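Below is a filled-in request sheet from our internal design queue. Each sheet records the structural input a requester submitted and the sequence that came back. We keep these sheets so that new team members can see what a complete request looks like end to end.

REQUESTER: design group, bay 2
PRIORITY: normal
MODE: inverse folding
CHAIN LENGTH: 614
BACKBONE (tokenized):
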């Protein structure tokens, strides 16, 4: 018997793969950690339940094993709620109940036969690490991107070494079986799907650190979070992308970009050497003279140079006085010019102009609170944008000399832990009663106002936990009692809260490199994004803008939001994309420092000078 509630939850899975990394210190899903096919993680079980509900797959031996190994430990509920607000335990229980009932009633268990190709695949990687069972295959068949449908692969294989990857590519060529490589989750653009063989790199998880040489080496299955955690343990930092993304995959596909790109750069700035398996199964390293030149850039949609199985990247030092500050602004142009000025002067390590949607989502443990906080920041405090900066004490001293208003770590912690009380009538009355003709946020950021701020918001983990479901409040209280959860430097280093951006709906992120001295151009691009989404009735928000290369260029993210389970919204998103694509194409092909991510994709290791200036 299929539960409609569980079916609905399962369909809402965003495929962000956060359940595959231990980002909250809760541990990993026990079965997924032991057998890292996607199907053994909560994300895969959500897909399996949806597939059963839609009668896409039969009950197989593999499905029985997936169901049997779920311990109902509840880790997935905590992890997924933190990111998306979903409660997948209802799906895990419903899946077990459905399969148990099916077996009690004597339902037929489908046994999948091996074919000659699969037998040869298993000869390469071992019997346990390759399958053609539909219960596993379906977890590799789609994602929320609105323009792609399901593509059911014939095989899924988890190699352990570069040699095994090479052997698989050669074997696929021999049998004329198409193949696609997959990192830690589904691509949000449908780029990791095939009707042939999916090569899942999740077993390739070796990390080697060279402190003397300030380098770290990651295999293809290493997530950004795990790589950062290892670097952090040794007193360093790595420039990484989203936490659940595999580092090598991001490096090759889009380059590594984030607010840290202000100091650490993008593209080839983040790679020292790498190992690839090309389309013929040949292995090459970037340091070899005869290796393909993947540092070059060609304006056009290009395939990736191969499967990156290992990358060597630089380690960056950390200091013990790094903290985050937020500088609020009522106007986007002021915020952009301030961020640009910081980068021109090399002040700060991470810099980002943030929109209200980003800020409120970043801070709030629930979507309902984020919506209300966004309104409070805008209407009560007068904040429209803010510049986030992570820097040492010298950077923070310089920032205080450049602007009269700074929300330091102390104020930000108070706001985060007192966030639900930001909506209380007495707090609003207090702010509205402030005298002066300056925006309220300017007055509240004064040092003498801090005791009043603290008394009004009464910040504590318990205060913040009121915003979540009652049965999760003890967990959130313990979680936010940990100092790193209100530490802006730590949160931005590990980026675990940025994954909340797609909490209420799936997010389509547009990324554009552009010149920062052309505010008219920036405003034109933003208005086009807003117009295309508005025409279709799609929710849309400014994401962030990070200055690069001494403030000469920046990377802009603009976000569309859609319910990927609603066919009407998928169609609307497709129409908005069709309107934006030629606009961004024209800007990219004209040059002038503008480049859309469409042309970077697959060329992520390129030297940024090639696509920012040539």
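RETURNED SEQUENCE:
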């Amino acid at each position: 018997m299929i539960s409609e509630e569980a079916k609905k939850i399962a369909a809402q899975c965003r495929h962000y793969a956060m359940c595959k990394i231990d980002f909250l210190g809760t541990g990993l899903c026990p079965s997924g950690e032991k057998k890292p096919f996607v199907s053994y993680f909560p994300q895969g079980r959500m897909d399996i339940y949806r597939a059963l509900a839609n009668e896409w797959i039969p009950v197989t031996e593999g499905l029985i094993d997936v169901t049997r190994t779920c311990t109902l430990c509840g880790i997935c509920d905590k992890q997924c709620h933190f990111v998306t607000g979903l409660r997948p335990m209802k799906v895990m229980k419903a899946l077990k109940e459905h399969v148990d009932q099916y077996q009690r009633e004597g339902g037929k268990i489908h046994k999948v036969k091996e074919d000659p190709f699969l037998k040869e695949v298993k000869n390469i990687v071992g019997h346990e690490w390759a399958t053609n069972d539909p219960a596993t295959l379906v977890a590799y068949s789609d994602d929320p991107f609105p323009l792609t449908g399901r593509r059911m692969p014939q095989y899924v294989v988890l190699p352990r070494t570069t040699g095994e990857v090479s052997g698989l590519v050669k074997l696929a060529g021999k049998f004329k079986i198409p193949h696609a490589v997959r990192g830690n989750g589904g691509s949000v653009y449908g780029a990791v799907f095939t009707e042939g063989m999916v090569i899942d790199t999740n077993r390739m998880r070796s990390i080697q650190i060279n402190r003397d040489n300030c380098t770290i080496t990651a295999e293809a299955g290493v997530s950004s979070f795990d790589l950062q955690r290892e670097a952090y343990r040794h007193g360093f930092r790595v420039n990484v992308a989203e936490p659940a993304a595999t580092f090598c995959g991001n490096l090759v596909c889009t380059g590594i970009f984030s607010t840290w790109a202000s100091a650490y750069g993008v593209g080839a700035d983040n790679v020292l050497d790498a190992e690839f398996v090309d389309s013929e199964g040949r292995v090459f390293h970037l340091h070899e003279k005869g290796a393909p030149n993947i540092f070059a850039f060609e304006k056009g949609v290009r395939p990736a140079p191969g499967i990156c199985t290992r990358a060597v990247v630089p380690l960056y030092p950390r200091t013990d006085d790094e903290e985050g500050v937020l500088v609020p602004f009522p106007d986007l142009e002021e915020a952009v010019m301030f961020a640009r000025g910081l980068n021109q002067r090399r002040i700060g390590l991470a810099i980002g102009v943030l929109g209200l949607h980003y800020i409120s989502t970043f801070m709030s443990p629930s979507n309902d609170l984020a919506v209300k906080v966004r309104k409070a920041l805008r209407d009560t405090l007068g904040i429209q944008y803010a510049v986030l900066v992570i820097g040492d004490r010298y950077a923070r001293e310089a920032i205080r000399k450049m602007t009269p208003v700074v929300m330091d770590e102390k104020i930000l912690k108070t706001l985060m832990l007192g966030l639900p009380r930001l909506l209380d009538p007495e707090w609003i009355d207090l702010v509205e009663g402030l005298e002066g003709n300056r925006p309220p946020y300017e007055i509240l950021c004064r040092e003498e106002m801090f005791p009043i701020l603290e008394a009004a918001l009464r910040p504590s983990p318990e205060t913040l936990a009121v915003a979540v479901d009652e049965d999760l409040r003890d967990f959130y209280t313990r979680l936010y009692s940990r100092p790193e959860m209100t530490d802006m430097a730590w949160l931005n280093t590990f980026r675990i809260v940025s994954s909340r951006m797609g909490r209420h709906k799936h997010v389509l992120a547009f990324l554009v490199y552009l010149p920062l001295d052309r505010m008219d151009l920036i405003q034109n691009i933003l208005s086009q994004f807003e117009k295309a989404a508005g025409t279709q009735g799609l929710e849309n928000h400014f994401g962030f803008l990070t200055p690069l290369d001494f403030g000469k260029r920046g990377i802009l993210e603009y976000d569309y939001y859609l319910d990927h389970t609603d066919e009407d919204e998928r169609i609307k998103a497709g129409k908005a994309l069709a309107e934006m694509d030629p606009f961004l194409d024209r800007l990219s092909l004209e040059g002038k420092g503008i480049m859309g991510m469409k042309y970077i994709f697959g060329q992520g290791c390129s030297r940024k000078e090639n696509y920012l200036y040539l």
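SHEET NOTES:
- The chain has 27 helices and 18 strands.
- Residues 323-499 form one domain.
FILED BY: M.R.
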